[in-house]
Amino acid sequence: MLWIILVGFVAGILARLISPGPNNPSGFILTTLLGIAGAFLATFIGQQIGHYGPNQGAGFITATIGALVVLFIWNRLVVRGSIPDPGRR
Predict the structure, then answer these.
(1) Sign of the torsion angle spanned by Cα atoms 38, 82, 17, 9
(2) What is the dihedral of CA 20, 24, 30, 33, to 10 degrees?
(3) Per-residue pLDDT reduced to its tens digit, 28-58
(4) Prediction pTM value
(5) CB burial of residue 71 (10 Å; 0-12, 13-18, 19+)
(6) Under the phi-then-psi rule, with left for phi > 0, alpha for psi from -120 to 50, and beta for the rest, what region is 27?
(7) Residue 57: CB partners within 8 Å, gap ≥ 6?
(8) Looking at residue 49, what is its pLDDT?
């Protein structure tokens, strides 16, 4: 569990650095959740297309790519007004 949080945090940081923007989720918890969600998304898609077996998880690079996808979806939802921008008060 600690390994998933650590990989999720690093993947979230890398995704935020690759895709900077004013409406990125900020803070340790949101960055970690971003990376963990990306890892789960990458694992799910990888298992569906047959890239990963049932007991395999996404690697570090694919977790970062998954976090980028989650961050893109986050940005689109903020722009659309579906969720509030945590950076704007």
Answers:
(1) negative
(2) -70
(3) 788 888 888 988 888 889 889 988 888 887 7
(4) 0.80
(5) buried
(6) left
(7) 39, 43
(8) 92
